[in-house]
Specification:
Length: 744
Amino acid sequence: MPHGSDDARKKFILTTTGNFYGIQPSSSLTDSQELNNFLDDGNEFVLSVSRSNNELHLSNKIEASGDSGEKVLVFFKLHPTVITEDNFHQSLLVSSMLESPINTLYQAVKQVFAPVLLKDERWRSAFDPKLADLLSELELGLGSVVRQFGAQSSSKKGRKEEDVLGILTPSDEFQYWADLSESAEKNSVRERAKHFTDQFEPIQKEFCGLDGLSMSDVVDLVEQSKEALDDVWRQTDYEPYPETRMVRLMDVVGGALGRYVQKKLSALKIFQEPFVSVRESLRTAVSICEQWVIACEHLTGQVWKRHVPHPWKGNKHCPQSLHCLAKRLNEVVTLRMVHEKLLCLLPGGKQQALTSDRVFEPFSGLNPLQYNPYTEPLWKAAVAQFERLMAPSEQEVAGRLKSYIADVKDNPQQLLQAFQKHKELIRRPTISKELQSEREMLLARILDYNKGLKTDFESRCHGGPGDKFGPLIGRNLPEVVNKIVWVRQLFHKVEDSVRIAEALLSDLSGFKGFLHFCDDLLEVLRVYEQEQFEDWSRDILSGLADPKSGISNRVMDLDHVDGKLKIQYSDRLVSLLREVRQLSALGFPIPAKIQQAANTADKFYRQAIVLKQVAHFYNTIDQQMIASQRPMMLSLALAFEQVIKSKESGGKLQITWDNPKDLEVYIAKLQSAAEKLSTENRKLRKWHTDFIDKVVVTLMNVDLLRHQQRWKDGLQELRTGFATLEAQKCLWVPHHFQQGRGPL
């Protein structure tokens, strides 16, 4: 039998091992006892290879990786046999073990064996249904363990939420919390997991059936996912959601969306079909990718950075693979659009040189949807060849664009529209060079436009909304919000002009000066916006400490001068609610005291409405009573007044908005007393109306000579009514009626 390096069996094992670990195996391994035992002993089934300190170690036992995260390569026999040069290709199996044996087994079952045995018709028909069920249960069970413990060994005590290597899809993350809500030992952990499960529920079903959704539905799902993640991050009822898990979740959601887009577009012949038939699908696909990237960057770079209860500590996060896919798809759209626009601007006789078959021939061997570092060089080479084919046509179209722009150069708005309409073409190096002077003219016009914005801002920034020289007024906006919205509109206009300049004019000599001016202007606008918010915050915080401001926490006052009841839930509190909501929506971090006041105002808005109704009733009941009947309602009026004064201390009411339980009880008593008084007043007014009807309408029209009995009957009805009222013995007039003040 060959020995050492001439042994094909050993060469196969050591070469495979070296390729796996990316190192050259030591020559001493050729004669290792473990390797010889595995090859020459029919009863030795396993050879495992691990690496430590850049050296390979062989063993006839499985040395599963532990916390170090090392990987293991395993050779094992299909049946008891001595390995020979003739049988090693038929008798040896090779498997890698990454992170942990549990994770390796789970991925092997999920990705390889379950699909083959349960979905492939040839194997499924020969597979016992009971075994199929057991295999499915094994996959579910292993998946649960991997999600709970990450890729670490299950022998570890406890679990860490930062272990996310077992989370490969959004459904894995959702299932992790569902499993934890049932299996956790502590009740608090189960409740928290259940809370996250409930918050994920709206999008969980969508991701489970993602492939069956239309692209427009997935656009909506992106927005729903952003809202779900925002709610999960911002919740304060339980311990915060871990940042490590959120990064992973954003990435796996991005991965799921990327795979969905690739699958949907794979049915299209992107470069062969007419652009009009693939345009919307491509644009929607780009939108799906870009919107999720934007959502992740916005949440982690701005919104959550300012969320005081649970701020984002890391850098702005971008799902990189989805970002790269979006970039590739944008390139495809641009290539198709450039081709389409060139066709529109070329005369009919010269369009033959731009047939799709000819100009897109460089991409015939490529799948543009398969983005990775290995395909990128091939893609760039194809793009370069495409551009060489387009160069002659671009030269001719540049002349046509030059004439078109000359016709509108005196109208800044039309000039800008012309550049925006043909921006894909103007970006092309050939056309951009031909339109050098036109682009310099556009840069000068945009600079003048931004100088005008600056002048307008400086003339209006010191006035109030609606003033002749104040910020332009919006519909139904509080003053501070109006100013901020106005300055943000200016901000976006400047940003839009910078975006156009960066896309079309960045190579011009005046671009840096333009950019410097815009940066300075944007900083001025930022400072103004921040000053408005800080001034508002100071005013509100000062008002919260001032009982006369209308935003204090007292519920109501009883004015002993005019006897009027006044509810301390002013219109200022209502406007504060609107301001806090709108400023929060604009991304401002509301100070804790102001947020608490707004939360209280929002919480007691309904009670304030009820109290205002009660106060209105208290302040106007004297106008609703018939003067002669006031003494008859003495006891109920006193009871109502007693409820109001029951919370007085030192001559002032002591109920505050900060005491919800007392307020609820107090409101219930007020409503009850007010309802009794109101009911009695309505009843007595009805008696009064009935008496008038009987006297004026009935008795006054009775002929006493001819209908004495009718007169007597009517009179008896009156006496019965008087007797009923007299039985109540309400004959005392309250002191505030006698003094002529107060509602009673």
